[in-house]
Specification:
- With about 190 residues, the chain is mainly β.
- The protein has 3 domains: about 1-60, SH3 type barrels, CATH 2.30.30.30; about 65-125, OB fold (Dihydrolipoamide Acetyltransferase, E2P), CATH 2.40.50; about 130-185, OB fold (Dihydrolipoamide Acetyltransferase, E2P) (Beta Barrel), CATH 2.40.50.
- It is built from no helices and 16 strands.
- It has a 6-stranded antiparallel β-sheet, with no helix packed on it.
Length: about 190
């Protein structure tokens, strides 16, 4: 068993019998009260967020998880087929483990997958991807003074709000966690 001092952001713990990923971890010492750790956790099995306070020095069950980079190959039904670059083993990962980032993933992109033993417990899409704009309405000439955005469809079929100066065929960088336009790729 580990204590609260051994936990950081990105640590997997077992809380109330469920596997959780620590998203935020803050040490607080309010006025004349005892110190505690404020934790924001995501339940790995159902994706729900939970918050809890742990007393300083409290025992916590930390789960040993192996993170491995895999190459996303293709989609098959409700699963994504990924390949381990070292062993060339193909692993089927449920689409919902990637969250909203799955709609921005292109073939041959690298993803991070967490394993507990041989079972996949967590997967994350690349933080940013470069995608080509396949459809968007043309911007009005001269309307660049405001930060106006227009919807655009990218090569994966997802819709992203982009600035007016971006046209069809240009490449843009998208943040897969928020689905927002970041910059134009040259």
């Amino acid at each position: 068993m580990a204590t609260t001092q051994d936990v950081n952001v990105g640590t997997f713990i077992r809380y109330n019998g469920e596997l959780c990923l620590i998203i935020e971890w803050q040490h607080r010492t309010p006025g004349n009260l005892r110190a505690f750790y404020q934790a924001k956790m995501r339940n790995v099995s159902n994706g729900k967020l939970a918050e809890n306070r742990f007393r300083s020095g409290e025992s916590i069950e930390v789960v040993r998880v192996e993170m491995r980079p895999l190459q996303y190959l293709y989609r098959e039904g409700e699963s994504l087929v990924c390949m381990d670059n070292d062993t060339f083993e193909q692993i089927y990962i449920e689409e919902n483990l990637f969250g909203d980032g799955v709609k921005f993933m292109t073939e041959n992109s690298e993803v991070n997958v967490a394993f507990e033993g041989d079972s996949v417990i967590y997967a994350e899409a690349p933080k940013t991807v470069e995608l080509e704009v396949t459809y968007t309405e043309p911007g009005v000439k001269g309307d660049t003074a405001t930060k106006t955005l227009k919807p655009a469809t990218v090569e994966t079929g997802a819709t992203v709000n982009i600035p007016l100066f971006i046209n069809i065929g240009e490449k843009i960088k998208v943040d897969t966690r928020t689905g927002e336009y970041m910059e134009r790729v040259k």
